[in-house]
Amino acid sequence: MPTDNQERLRRVLVGRIESLELAGVRQLPKARKQAAVEVAAVRAVRPAAEAASPERGELVRPAEEAALLSPLQVDSTTKATAATLEVLQQEVAPCVRCEELARARTQTVFGVGNPQARLCFLGEAPGADEDKQGEPFVGRAGQLLNKIIEACKMRREDVYICNILKCRPPGNRNPHPVEAANCRCFLERQLELVGPEFICCLGTIAAQNLLGTTQTIGKLRGTLHTFRNAKVVCTYHPAYLLRNPAAKKDTWEDMKLLMREMGVEV
What is the rounded CA–CA span in Å between residue 37 and residue 7? Predict the structure, then answer.
């Protein structure tokens, strides 16, 4: 009977293989010395892996695999995840699926932060400052988000931050449904690579697009939702809080809910 560690590793490996299959990968290079321990682990849990498989499309946390590896291999896993995100970022950069956005943008705005973060903050789209600098949440709303993160006893570099859209909509208008659909594959791959345990949706647009709902942020906040195997908390966008400071107390309640689920005392 497999041990708990073997079962965890089995789920990670099967999930990783299925993710590669979905991405169109049909052949892997021959394992080198660096991967010898991982190959041995695959052989050890192969019978269990053949007996069952996880739900297709499940987000696989690299940290689950990393917990079973040596410090050297953990560092290699982190670098591999970051490198893969960089490849995806390079794929996003020349995207012209949304002709209007591609024509108007200065550059795409991919994501920033810890490539293996437990928590991901998800916004709707870049603004003027983000379009200029190429990094999400760097304007006034981003400064407020930084304060929220610090109040939760974390640092910006501890979390991962990205948006539904990777391009700024002209005039900072709301993303059109077709634009969100065009960017969806990039977002899903991004979340799959980071593998957050928790996602915080900032505003109605982010929450509706991620969760596939038409409910407003007022209806969605204050309770837990799920996206694949990640727990999701929805709250107001920092830009809304700048216009409506009274709503900050509600956002703080949402953050306390999120921190309780994460096991962080605030």
Answer: 16
CA distance 177 to 40: 46
Q: How far apart are CA 63 and CA 66, in angstroms?
A: 5
Residue 67 lies in a domain: no
The angle subtended at Cα 173 by Cα 169 and Cα 179, nearest 5°, is: 50
Q: Is residue 68 part of a domain?
A: no
Q: Work out the number of other CB atoms within 10 angstroms of the CB of residue 45.
A: 21
Same domain, 128 and 39: no
> pLDDT truncated to tens, each residue of the chain (266 aa)?
555 445 544 544 544 454 445 444 444 444 333 333 333 333 333 333 333 333 334 444 444 444 443 444 445 556 667 789 999 999 999 999 999 999 999 999 999 999 999 999 999 999 999 999 999 999 999 999 999 999 999 999 999 999 999 999 999 999 999 999 999 999 999 999 999 999 999 999 999 999 999 999 999 999 999 999 999 999 999 999 999 999 999 999 999 999 999 999 87
Strand order through the sheet with 230-235: 111-113, 160-163, 119-123, 198-202, 230-235, 224-227
> SS3 breakdown of the chain: % helix, strand, coil, rounded to 5?
55, 10, 35
> How many Å apart are CA 77 and CA 72, to the nearest integer?
9
pTM for this entry: 0.72
Total domains present in the chain: 2
Q: Are residues 175 and 228 in the same domain?
A: yes
And the tokens for 195? 């593998």
Q: What CATH number does the domain containing 211 carry?
A: 3.40.470.10
Q: What angle do CA 172, 176, 180 make, to 5 degrees?
A: 105
Q: Tell me the residue range of the domain where 24 lies.
A: 1-58
